[in-house]
Each structure stands twice: as C-alpha cells, then as structure tokens.
Amino acid sequence: MKYRRLTKEQLEEMHPEFINFLASQSITASEWEEIKSSKPQVAEEEIDVFSDLVWDGVLNKAEYLEHISPRTMNLFSLGENEMELISIIVGDELIDITTDEGYKWLQKNLLDDEVKIFTAKKSYSENPNEDKFKLIESGAVITKGDLFNYFDDLMELGKETNGF
Question: Which is more confidently placed, 162 or 4?
Fold first, then answer.
C-alpha cells in the first residue's frame, strides 16, 4: 500500500466508485460478498488497492495545501516539478491566527516585528504524490489556494514598491 486505507466513512461516500472498481475487475456484488466472507484477506487487499487509486487521483489533482496552527501558517503551491512554500510565523503567543480575530490581526500587522515570513522552493522526491501525502498526514489540507495567492500577491506588491 502506497498511502493509507480510506476510512470507513470515506469508503461509504465512495460506494458507487468502489462498485465500479469491482466491476472493472469483473467482480459482481454476490462474488464480493463471497470474497468478504471466505477470503477476508483478499477483500482487504482489494480495499487497499482501491484506496491507493483514490489517493493517487486526489493527489494528482491537488494544487495547493495549507497547514495552519495557532501561530504558524504554511501555504504550499504544488507545481509540476517542485512545491513552493510561504511560511508565516507569529511570535506573539497571545495571537491565534486560527481565529477570526487572530487572522484579522495578522492581516493588519504583516509588517510587525512579531511576524516572520519565509519562502522556499523544494523539488519533489522520486514520487511527488508521496511528498504531498506526507504533508496531508501531518495535518495539511487540500485547498483552492486562496490564502497562498493572497500572500503571494502581497509579497509581489511589496517587491514592486520597494524597488522604487
């Protein structure tokens, strides 16, 4: 297994897709019931293969990830050959950027000494999807990239105005 098995809830949500997966292997509903009861190990392996296929599909489509904690915001843009990171760290322990109030403070105080912004680029390993999956397993979530693009635009604007 390359990733991890989908949860029971995820498998239930993907029931129609799982039926199609079994059908693509010429496994009927009655045959599936027989496999589950007489060869549970084979059934487990089929679920694992299906889980990997689902994860590969999701990870191939993912363009942005976010991992936000009370004092740190890590925003990832997932390019074809590398990922780009914008990391924002708030030094003031009283500020929690996961709250509306804390996030508004951050927006108003980006230039404050308590706020540090770092950027980095990193090439993927031999398997980009495994790199993305590790970030998800550590708490990152797939997003549309609104926050990444917001902060990326702000930094580009800052570069332009500092150039005069």
Answer: 4
